[in-house]
Design goal:
By secondary structure, the chain is mostly helical. The protein has 2 domains: 108 residues, no CATH class; 200 residues, MetI-like (MetI-like fold), CATH 1.10.3720. Helices cover 74% and strands 0% of the residues. It is built from 13 helices and no strands. The longest helix has 38 residues. The protein is flat and about 75 Å long.
Length: 357
């Protein structure tokens, strides 16, 4: 061979051990090769132990709850034990699946530290309340008491969840509809933007909950006023993101569509709206966060139903266990709502996902 040096593209060669320290960003192909490199026996054993740590921690949580003495004359039940056993059962199923599936193993390995920390948090809170009294009653009830409070009021909580979701989505979709109209119109027309921008600059920086006292006086019904309060909070982020999305579309896209004979309606629905979808979903996500906050404030201050109302009511009767239970139900409910929104976003924007396989 001659003394010439033949350069081989980085994508076609395995990444050397020191690839990450060569001052360049590794290619996706190199990253896959690094991740799929065979592990040593000690590293593989350590990873398997990490996968089993949540189950061990769950057993320690139950042992502490059953064996450690309670402070004072605290009365406990097996509800908390069943709850931890159920959570440990779910993790155990994942652990068994990880023994037969590499994908399940990788998912469990990534989540195992988080699961372990969750069980550890249960143990610490149980010790700080039921076992030591560091956090005094009645303001800090132990986990078993909170779970029993949720179970006792399950029918009322389900009704409150239904009412809260009705109010949440009524205001949310109203705000989304108004935000899309003003945002798209402002992005497509400088005349509309001339009149809308001052309104955005005035109302945007002010939290929607600021208008609650006025709404309670002016609104004909508490439900209608709460819907308006939530819609106002959602309107601003949806308007801004959709307007900026339209303004960021290259003018050449509109000119090409006009050349092909597209009218104003097709320009909106075939050019502006699809290109603005990533920005719109950013506004929808921000709007959902604002809507959840406005919902809680509206229910605590005026509406006579829903989870916010339930929290305020139980706090008035010093039923702190049920109050904390409602807070947990709120977190779970809103997490599910945001998860469903993320699924819709992934479905609509699936074209953004890059397949490196």
């Amino acid at each position: 061979m001659s003394g010439k040096t033949v350069s081989i593209p980085a994508e076609a060669t395995p990444a050397p051990k020191g690839a990450l320290s060569q001052g360049r960003t590794p290619t996706p192909w190199e990253l896959r090769q690094l991740e799929s490199a065979p592990k040593s026996k000690s590293r593989a054993s350590a990873d398997r132990v990490i996968c089993g740590l949540p189950i061990v921690m769950a057993a320690l949580v139950i042992a502490q709850y059953k064996l450690a003495p309670n402070v004072g004359n605290a009365i406990t039940t097996d509800t908390y034990t069943y709850f931890i056993l159920f959570m440990a059962f779910l993790v155990s199923v994942k652990f068994i699946m990880s023994c037969f599936s590499k994908t399940s193993y990788e998912k469990l390995l990534a989540k195992a530290p988080l699961y372990t920390a969750g069980f550890l948090l249960f143990a610490l809170y149980d010790y700080a309340t039921l076992k030591s009294g560091i956090l005094p009653l009645p303001y800090f009830p132990w986990p078993d008491r909170i779970l029993n409070g949720i179970y006792e009021d399950r029918a009322l909580l389900l009704d409150c969840i239904k009412n809260s979701l009705i109010l949440l989505f009524s205001g949310y979709f109203a705000g989304v509809f108004a935000g899309l109209l003003t945002g798209l119109a402002s992005g497509l027309s400088s005349r509309v933007r001339y009149w809308v921008m001052p309104l955005i600059q005035i109302l945007g920086p002010i939290p929607s909950t600021t208008w609650l006292p006025i709404i309670l006086i002016v609104a004909s019904s508490l439900f209608g006023g709460s819907v308006f309060l939530i819609a106002l909070g959602v309107w601003y982020p949806v308007t801004m993101t959709s307007m900026l999305g339209v303004l960021n579309i290259p003018k050449a896209n509109f000119e090409a569509a006009r050349t092909l004979g597209a009218g104003k309606t097709r320009l909106v629905f075939k050019v502006a709206l699809p290109a603005t979808m990533p920005h719109i979903f950013q506004g929808l996500t921000q709007g959902m966060s604002v809507a959840c906050t406005a919902l809680m404030v509206a229910e605590m201050m005026g509406v006579e139903s829903g989870l916010g109302w339930y929290i305020n009511w139980q706090r008035g009767w010093a039923e702190f266990a049920k109050m904390y239970g409602a807070v947990i139900v709120i977190c779970v409910t809103f997490s599910i709502v945001n998860f469903l929104l993320s699924l819709v976003k992934r479905r609509v924007l699936r074209w953004q996902e890059v397949n490196w396989n």
